[in-house]
Amino acid sequence: MDDRSPITTRTDFDAIVVGAGFAGMFMLHRLRQQGLKVRVFERGSGVGGTWFWNRYPGARCDTESMEYSYQFDDALQQEWNWPERYSAQPDILKYANHVADRYNLRADLQFNTKVLSASFDEARHLWTIATDDGKTATARYFIMATGTLSVANKPKFAGLDSFKGRVFYTSDWPHEGVDFTGRRVALIGTGSSGIQSTPHIAEQASRLTVFQRTPNFSVPARNRPLSDEERNVTKSRYGELRNFTYQQPFATNFHMNDVSALSVSPEERRRVYEERWNQHGGLHFMAAFNDLLFNSEANKTIAEFIVDKIHGIVKDPKKAEILAPKNGVVGCKRLCSDTGYFETFNRDNVDLVDVSQSPIEEVTETGIRVEGDEGIRDFGVDDIVFATGFDAMTGALLGVDIKGRGGQSLRDKWAAGPRTYLGLQTVGFPNLFMVTGPGSPSVLSNMMVSIDQHVNLISDTIRHLESAGIVEIEPQQSAEDAWVSHVNEVADLTVYPTCNSWYLGSNVPGKTRVFMPYIGFNTYVAKCQDVVAKGYEGFVLVPSERKEAATA
Ligand code: NA7
Predict the structure, then answer these.
(1) 538 Cβ inside 6 Å of ligand 1
(2) Checking phi first, is residue 161 left (phi over 0); if not, alpha (psi -120 to 50) or beta?
(3) What is the pLDDT of residues 6-53, one digit of tens each?
(4) What does the alpha-carbon distance between residue 497 and residue 499 come to, in Å, rounded to a whole number?
């Protein structure tokens, strides 16, 4: 046994963490600071998680760099200089690598190792983890830091294997980059990844054909280089700004205009939207008025504004008609931030195919076949780029065959959708923690802040368990049931459940439609603080003596 452990069972590690993205790296750092022996398994060959894999051209964060960064060490945030308002993927990956080196994290990171299964031993209250190198390892705490957008949604188009050209996925982009010069390229998917990559691919390709199933709302990111002065202003009051974001519903400073969209004149609304469009850009748009996400009539006003903009930008009226969402709800699917997306459809080498009514029929040896009212249409292409998104929030958790108490499988337990208490733990799986799991704010917040809060909460909890000699922590069934209901009740107050989005899992064929993130980071933080203050209310904590007696 590790001699720092108060518990009698010998394990290889105190904690095993899966994933070396921002969550896994910080988890490792915190637990090591507490004197625990930790091993992190990572399937990739480097750190960075989603930013390690999503290297497609134009990949960029939609949260501002000075906020999308760690806050646990003031020296780090004072020394690091973000070059742009919204960071490009290479800059975020550079930061992740800097953090790994700065805190000597690599010593406990094991790359190129996929975790296949994990099972809980009730008698010894430990987890056994099996990896794809044929080895197993044991630990008392098992922490899934596997991210929310880490398993690709890969539609199984008939004939794809027969395609003679090149196939790429934005979520698993070749590290050496891709040259599209002189190529005829098909791009499938118009979410954030498709919208960001389209202008870049169009610049190289001889022809780019975008296949759009659902038109999406997108607004200019208004990205720009950050000046020294801007960076210094933020750094001089970083503590205050970080505290402020902890009190915000999305854990970021959206500059909320705390007025109803329906309480002002159409002229005033237009003025506010124009200002957001021209100056703030990006997700700040959702804070143009305080009821855009709660009132569908208010939401219609922003939808009309963006639709007008699309018609104003795209010169070909047919393309504009296809690109402009009809009866769409802005923000229901995550609002996209772009740089020159709609403008790209004014290029002579860019085509747009509406596959909303006539889905892609098959991939042939030479391209993509669509069958619709106009009969069979074949699009000959050299390359296909899939920007078809992710099996979000649960994909990576269920990618590991996790078996809890009594051999119960997490896949079975969550067959009708994920069930958690606080997005942290699930009944039947003691000492398994999820960082930013379903039922926590996660993707509906600045992920870096949600990671900060969850990692601190998990490490504080583990410290408490260690010092109190507690061998197991697990939610009470009633607490989990109440939390799942609460997550849904809050979602039902908003426009989020009104469309098919990856927040609901409805982008993946066969996945149960359940709203997964918790809306309201600030209320979530208060709830967690209250739970801890009340002695981990809603959790069952099993002291070692009782457990030993029970199993003797
Ligand atoms: P998204 O936002 O899930 O977008 C995926 C896109 O792929 C979306 O337009 C889908 O259309 C389309 N799609 C998926 N399957 C198909 C098939 N079978 N045929 C045609 N089109 C298809 O993923 P992203 O990677 O762009 O962005 C994910 C998040 O990453 C983003 O929200 C940011 O938070 C960062 P649909 O809308 O389902 O009709």
Answers:
(1) no
(2) alpha
(3) 444 689 999 999 999 999 999 999 999 999 999 999 999 999 999 999
(4) 6
CA–centroid distance, residue 191 to ligand 1 (Å): 4
- State the distance from the centre of ligand 1 to the C-alpha of 501, rounded, in angstroms: 8
Could you identify the atom of ligand 1 that is nearest to the CA of residue 189? Answer: 7
Does the CB atom of residue 387 touch ligand 1 within 6 A?
A: yes
CA angle 309-443-517, nearest 5°?
Answer: 110
Q: Report the separation in Å between the CA atom of 212 and the middle of ligand 1, taken as the mean of its atom positions.
A: 10
Choosing from 193, 218, 323 the residue with most ligand 1 atoms within 8 A of its CB, the one to mutate for a pocket test is 193
DSSP 278: I
- Verify whether ligand 1 is closer than 6 Å to residue 149 (CB atom): yes
**What topology does CATH give the domain 13-151+392-471?**
FAD/NAD(P)-binding domain (3.50.50)
* Closest among 128, 132, 127 to 116, alpha carbons compared: 132
CA of 167 from ligand 1 middle (Å) equals 17
pLDDT, tens digit (0-9, with 9 covering 90-100), for 314-341: 999 999 999 999 999 999 999 999 999 9
Q: Which residue has a Cα nearest atom 6 of ligand 1? A: 189
Instruction: State the sign of the Cα–Cα–Cα–Cα dihedral 100, 102, 106, 107.
Output: negative
The SS3 of residue 327 is: coil
Of 188, 156, 193, give the one whose Cα is nearest residue 354. Answer: 188
List, by residue range, all CATH 3.50.50.60 domains of the chain. 13-151+392-471
389 Cα: distance to centroid of ligand 1 (angstroms): 4
CB of residue 389 inside a 6 A radius of ligand 1: yes
* Start-to-end CA span in the chain (Å): 19
Pocket test for ligand 1, best of 192, 333, 443, 448 (most atoms within 8 A of CB): 192
Beta-strand ranges (E) seen in 275-359 are 336-338, 350-354
Rounded alpha-carbon distances, angstroms, from residue 381 to 78, 149, 164, 171, 207: 48, 28, 10, 21, 9
Residue 471 has pLDDT above 80, yes or no: yes
Nearest C-alpha neighbor of 164 from the set 421, 380, 451, 411? 380
Residues 6+ apart with CB under 8 A from 412: none
Kindly report the number of other CB atoms within 10 A of residue 311's CB atom: 15
Is the pTM for the entire model greater than 0.85? yes
Handedness of CA 528, 532, 538, 543 (dihedral sign): positive
